[in-house]
Design a protein that fits this description.
- The chain is α+β, with helices and mostly antiparallel strands.
- It is 14% helix and 35% strand.
- It contains two helices and seven strands; from the N terminus they run ββββαβββα.
- Strands 1, 2, 3, 4, 5, 6 and 7 form a seven-stranded mixed sheet that branches.
- A hairpin with a 2-residue loop joins β1 and β2.
- Bound molecules: 8-OXO-2'-deoxyguanosine-5'-triphosphate and magnesium ion (MG) (2 copies).
- One magnesium ion (MG) is lined by residues 41, 56, 59-60.
């Protein structure tokens, strides 16, 4: 009866950088609702991190990422959320004009999950950030200098 035993899941998310800005969308979700987060989602069976990054960015924003590189990984236990969850989150980076064709414009392809995608300057990040991202920023992580 009830839910099966919960397990940690793997997520892949992308720091998509453009000049001094990065792409963020405000979540519509039982996890981190109304907070600003990176594009990304669940690693599927058989995928590489790079494949997952490109697929999730394409599904959520329509942007075609050529390449992406691994930056870091964090362990995110979120038992206080309306939907309790635990993610091992892989953070990738892709740079507009280098790994991604510069003139592409992000579209909100999953409006049930996101209010819209916007470029935000690193020095003027919106609030509140999604918990896992907020913790990294507070700890001094910088995707431009990693
Ligand atoms: P999918 O069905 O497309 O695979 O999943 P999704 O609907 O796109 O999943 P998601 O919630 O966007 O991402 C999966 C989990 O990744 C999320 O619940 C928690 C974790 N996660 C972080 N940091 C971030 C982040 O900055 N952005 C996103 N999108 N997810 C993040 O730990
Ligand atoms: Mg997704
Ligand atoms: Mg997502």
């Amino acid at each position: 009866n009830g839910d099966p035993t919960p397990v940690p899941r793997v997520a892949v998310v992308v720091f998509l950088l453009k000049g001094r800005s990065l792409l963020l969308g405000r979540r519509r979700s039982a996890v981190g609702n109304a907070t600003y987060a990176l594009p990304g989602g669940h690693l599927e069976f058989g995928e590489s991190f790079e494949e997952c990054a490109a697929r999730e960015v394409k599904e959520e924003t329509g942007l075609d990422i050529g390449k992406s590189e691994f930056l870091t990984v964090t362990n995110n236990v979120m038992l206080e959320q309306p939907k309790k969850c635990h993610y091992v989150t892989i953070f990738m980076r892709s740079v507009m004009g280098v790994d991604v064709e510069e003139e592409q414009v992000p579209q909100n392809l999953e409006p049930d999950k996101c209010d819209g995608w916007e470029w935000h300057e690193w020095d003027h990040l919106p609030h509140p950030l999604f918990g896992p991202l907020e913790r990294m920023v507070k700890a001094g992580f910088n995707p431009f200098s990693s």
